[in-house]
Each structure stands twice: as C-alpha cells, then as structure tokens.
C-alpha cells in the first residue's frame, strides 16, 4: 500500500469520525434539553405535591389535641 493510498484512507476515516462526533454532539444537546425539561417538570410536580400535602395537613387537626366526642 502506497503512502498516498494510506493518507487518502486516513483522511476518509477522519471525515467519517468528524461526522460521527458531530452527530453524537447533536444527540447530547437534544438529551440535555430533555433532561432540563424533565427536571423542570419534576420541580413543578414536587411543588404541587407539597402544596397538596400542606393543604391536606391543615384540614386535619391533630388527633391528640382533639377533645373526645363524649365531652
């Protein structure tokens, strides 16, 4: 195999690798966007759940502090 053929083959492989790295970078960018969106949704769900729990706990009184019905 001549030096020129080897160089051409290396250049070809390099171009394919460069394209692959670019494609993988786009996948990472898209996945990061999805992660950011999911983290925001999780934060909103946690907030809603905390608000519901707070609302429910304020509707119930402490059974130890309640007077029994026969009083």
From TrEMBL:
Entry-linked Pfam families:
SlyX (PF04102)
Residues in coiled coil: 21-55
What keywords sit in the KW lines?
A: Coiled coil
Instruction: Please name the InterPro entries in this protein's record.
Output: SlyX
The signal sequence is: none
UniProt family annotation: Belongs to the SlyX family.
Q: What is this protein called?
A: Protein SlyX homolog
State the organism named in the record.
Answer: Piscirickettsia litoralis
Query: What gene name is given for the protein in this entry?
Result: slyX
């Amino acid at each position: 195999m001549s030096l020129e053929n080897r160089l051409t083959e290396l250049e070809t492989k390099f171009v394919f690798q460069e394209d692959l790295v670019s494609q993988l970078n786009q996948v990472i960018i898209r996945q990061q966007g999805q992660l950011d969106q999911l983290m925001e949704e999780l934060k909103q769900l946690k907030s809603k759940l905390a608000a519901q729990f707070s609302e429910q706990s304020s509707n119930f009184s402490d059974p130890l502090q309640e007077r029994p019905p026969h009083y």
